[in-house]
Amino acid sequence: MKQLLRSTLAAAAPLLFAGAANAYVIDFETVDASNVPFAPLLLGGDYLTQGAYFIDMQDINGPGGLIGALSNGNDSDTCYNSVCPKDNKTNFLSVYNDGIAHLGHVSGGQILFGGMSAAYIPVFEAPAGSTVYLAVEADRADGSYASFYYPLKSSGAFMNIPTTGGTRLGGSGALTDGIVTDLFVYGYFCNGGTGSCSAFSTNQGQFALDNIILTAVPEPQTYAMLLAGLCLTGVAALRKKTA
To answer: Are 175 and 59 in contact (CB under 8 A)?
Structure first.
């Protein structure tokens, strides 16, 4: 009996931890924009989905303002001021005018952030050397949070944003600690002339996002149900063998 249960649990191990290994990439190639009335333009309150994940576009000034677009690196007409960020010829999300991209699982469950690609969208007539510091905030089920910022290239080229290596902005722990349910991504515009950086006050916090890696983490009861089912399967197999 013990040997059979050990064999059953050994076979179950890959299944039990499959959720933690099944990362999903939001690449905006198959994004559902049915809740975007003026697509490809994005207004505050618009709601995108891809796979089991959502991107909720938020504007601190209230819904209805232009804060982004679904862009393509091969089509300059879809990009801000007809200039697309460098090093990306696929679909991506553009965020304008201090907009916020709110991401999560459509079920509201726990998610694990695995990184993304991002680029500064140069502001028309901004001083040389201006850029955006990309802020990533992970909100947890217990009300705590962690936020870090990453300087984007002033050239407007896409770069990788990892889960570590940023400068702490607020909160505690890492972006992947605890039960994270929501991610918020926004920008601090840094004026190359004055050296000052500010968020939500300039309408110049503009950036592009692509290849956002998220993983849905199954609830503990899901693991428990799976384990119980596998144990019952093992018992049934033992009875059959004995008979």
So the answer is: no
CA 202 to mean position of chain CA atoms: 24
Q: Tell me the pTM.
A: 0.83
Q: Which of 43, 44, 39 has the alpha carbon at shortest distance from 28?
A: 39
- Torsion angle of alpha carbons 60, 62, 63, 66, nearest 10°? -60
Phi-psi region of 58 (alpha: psi -120 to 50; beta: other; left: phi over 0): beta
Strands (DSSP E) found in the chain: 24-26, 32-35, 41-43, 47-50, 53-58, 66-72, 91-95, 100-105, 111-120, 131-140, 145-151, 159-161, 167-171, 180-190, 197-198, 207-216
d(CA 35, CA 52): 15
Q: What is the pLDDT of residues 137-191, one digit of tens each?
A: 999 999 999 999 999 999 999 999 999 999 999 999 999 999 999 999 999 999 9
CA distances from 108 to 53, 103, 181, 219, 220 (A): 9, 10, 6, 11, 15
Q: At what angle do helices 2-16 and 220-242 cross, to 10 degrees?
A: 150
**Which residues make beta-bridge pairs with 91?**
72
Amino acid identity, position 107: S
Closest by CA to 18, choosing from 224, 221, 217, is 217
User: Please, what is the Cα angle at 141 between 140 and 146, to 5 degrees?
Assistant: 10
Residue type, 238: L
- List C-alpha distances in Å: 100 to 58, 105, 114, 187, 200: 5, 17, 19, 8, 9
